[in-house]
Amino acid sequence: MLVHQFSNKSTEMALRVASLDYLGTVAARLRKDAVTSKMDQGSIARILKQFSRKFYIAQWFRDTTMETEKAIKSQKDEDSSERTHHAKDVETTGQIMHRAETRKTFLRSIIKTTPSQFSTLKMNSDTVDYEDACLIVRYLASMRPFAQSFDIYLTQILRVLGENAIAVRTKAMKCLSEVVAVDPSILARLDMQRGVHGRLMDNSTSVREAAVELLGRFVLCRPQLAEQYYDMLIERILDTGISVRKRVIKILRDICIEQPTFPKITEMCVKMIRRVNDEEGIKKLVNETFQKLWFTPTPHHDKEAMTRKILNITDVLLKSEEDASYKPVKKACTQLVDNLVEHILKYEESLSDSDNKGVNSGRLVACITTLFLFSKIRPQLMVKHAMTMQPYLTTKCSTQNDFMVICNVAKILELVVPLMEHPSETFLATIEEDLMKLIIKYGMTVVQHCVSCLGAVVNKVTQNYKFVWACFNRYYGALLKLKSQHQEDPNSTILTANKPALLRSLFTVGALCRHFDFDQEDFKGNSKVNIKDKVLELLMYFTKHSDEEVQTKAIIGLGKKY
């Protein structure tokens, strides 16, 4: 009847819309019952197993009672005047009662309940509770033709999406929302996909908004739906209806937050950024969106989220640049880098002024740190400034700022030098020598950054393996000698005197092994000795040293190596 009412175009519009509304409720309930029944197959099996046996026992108990009552009544209906048979009658009735009680006793014993509980079986704790009863009813009802008519009703709702009346089309979308709320997997159906796509292109803004709202409510809980409907959804960000554009931006924002690994996030961000010059409400929404996506603090321990945020920002900038004939971001970044380098040179000159030495030293560190961040994102920006940065490797370290300068310059050169086209041999040799001096002279933090930079320069550019091999042998040989001395006399004063050399050798060998494969022929030539195993054996030996500081450095060396 409902289908007939809303399908009949001659019916009053209010009645058609109301009928469609009711049918949507019916279809949603049918789908809910079907999904619930499928999800609770285990519960249904449990209920059947638990109560089917008790049902039959109770039925047999009832049958015994009824048979007894019937037999007794039959005895009473016989002619009472036949006194000669009275004794026999009483005996027969007694036999009937005895047989009935025997049956009941047996049934009680196998159902494992007391006689008093049988009189109030409905109040027994073993009866079906309300939820189980509802589940059983839904399951049994799902076998009936009406319960299996969901596809028919859904098809009817999808059919009226093409109606001329806007009210009918809008109500049809609302009905689909009810159905999808119960089972979002419905959106994966091809007929649903065609229906929703058609309404996203509808002439009416309210219908388009209803279609977008339908998708927005459910694409987040099913990542595959986001991929399936992405192309349809992203088109609507250019919709003529302001309300539609707003809703699309909210959905895209939620996808970015809830599904940070979604492959289309860069494109989505670019599309949203382009709406920044839209009307005031949308402009505000876009600003709030990127405030939340990019400029909300990330938990300190969540390195993955921080990396993802940085990559997202850079990917969006690059994508925006690729799509534009004029590339303002690239030009602006180039200007910033160039000016930062100029400021570094100015601060370096002003460091001779003792009054401002501390302030300018801090600014120098800040500028070099900023350049490192630019290099990390786009190292090409620093290629032309590499030779300017190299002399800072020779900074005399007397303060914490000096150490920060050296470490950041090493990190910059590590990223930039491999990108240089035909760098001069003198320049490369100078970098190698400066890095080696720093490795020999300073502590663990400087060593790890300088070894990493040396690895990039030698492995990717100079292939000066003999230079590195000599350095490795210096520390490796020292460890072998110190191990031998320790084995001969663990309490030797020579070992105590050489403790600083031992500590430096332990973490330096580990750091070198992390960035260079010394088992390559380029390093050890034709030797059959497995350097990696020898270093592992050596470091493991010192992890058992009596001195805790030596143990710690040996473990750190192992961490650097592996």
Automatic annotation (TrEMBL):
Entry keywords, A to Z: Activator, Cell cycle, Developmental protein, Nucleus, Repeat, Transcription, Transcription regulation
InterPro entries documented for this protein: ARM-like, ARM-type_fold, Cohesin_HEAT, Scc2/Nipped-B
UniProt main location, coarse: nucleus
One GO location term (cellular component): nucleus
Subcellular compartments: Nucleus
Disordered, as annotated region: 71-91
CDD domains to which the protein is assigned, alphabetical: SCC2 (cd23958)
Coiled coil stretches, renumbered: none
Name this polypeptide is given: Nipped-B-like protein
